[in-house]
Amino acid sequence: MAAHATPVFIGVAALVATTILFVYGSAAGSTTANIGAGTLSPQSRASLKPSHTSSRLFSPQTRKFRPFTRNAVQTETEAPVKTEVDTENAAMLLEDMHLGRKFEDATAQWYQRGKVFGFVHLGNGQEAVSSGSIKQLRNDDYICSTYRDHVHALSKGCDPKKVMAELFAKKTGICNGQGGSMHMFSKENNMLGGYAFIGEGIPVALGAAFQTAYRRNVLKDPTADQVTLAFFGDGTTNVGQFAECLNMASLYKLPIIFIVENNLWAIGMYHYRATAPSLGDQLPHIYKKGPAFGMPGKVVDGMDVLSVQETVAEAIERARNGEGPTLIEAETYRYRGHSLADPDVLRTAEEKERFAKQDPIEKFRKYCLETGLLTESQIEDIEKRVDAKVQEAIEFADSSPKPDKSQLLNNVFADPKGFGVDENGKYRYENPSFIAKSAAAGL
Prior knowledge:
There is one protein chain. By secondary structure, the protein is α/β, with parallel strands linked by helices. The chain contains 15 helices and 9 strands. The longest helix is centred in the N-terminal third of the chain and has 26 residues, at about 1-25.
């Protein structure tokens, strides 16, 4: 009995001690705050308060609500940053964002028609993060995505027809119909995959960056200057892989950029209910975790493609020059539920309406017209090209053949079927006797 009572006693004692410390700390807050073995004076505490010098989508001035509330989200932002952008670059960015949006809308439509299978997570609203960052990369640079990977794959140059065919589970898909929505992979485009579980892709991206650094620093390969982008959401910053990978990236000065697509919601968990603030802050700021690991931390309006482009360009330059990693928090918003199976009832209509007014495509379209970068006619041509691409992708996917049973175990085992090699040097599944024994065993 005593053995069972001891843990209970310790637990109760710890709870009481925590409560006393909490009450004492609150009462003593006007004088000093105990942190570890030392104390902070009121002057020192003031110096720890964050300075907000960058343009924020989630403005601290309107973040007066406390965690556990979700009815005061800031959406009024400044005009796009006036970076150097010419007509060609503007047209490329607008077309890529349009392609992402139209592709996702078509995916939702064909999901409802029963042509797209499995869990499907759409990136509507987050296009500026993808286009503003990935379109600056070379083909030999790497990206690693999440389960919300369609738009990332398109921005990296993957064929829309193959991406759509993968969603339709067809043999002509980017993964031969075996990956589906959450697992887009392309060796040709150095698209290192989408991942169904949060945090899975960050170590893979870290590995890509590590091999680049190894080739450059150890093998003295002059061509090894590739950069890797690792995408993940705000919820992922609370899992172990995030911290472990930031530590290793900084330790070895790896050419990797960690991009947090903070859309405020980790499935149905509101960001301010799940993430603790940094010391001196009342609300969490993910980008501040960068300096803690010895790398720059940047925050950017993820609904402004030019702001994203400018911020990521600086990080790419640092990485190519061997100066190490960067953590970027892109404040964005998704316009659909977590997945197409999500009724999206947790977010208020007011919140969704506010962010709808910050549509990154409409914002950039307006900017291009006002600055004379593009004309109405040029934008209409872009939209027509995108519509044609998406329609072509749908027709290709719908008319493509389904995977046949012969590829069932492909890409699962080291040999095509996973049964090993027989004494005659042939695969065991090719041996008639093996097949007969397997059938008899019910395999």
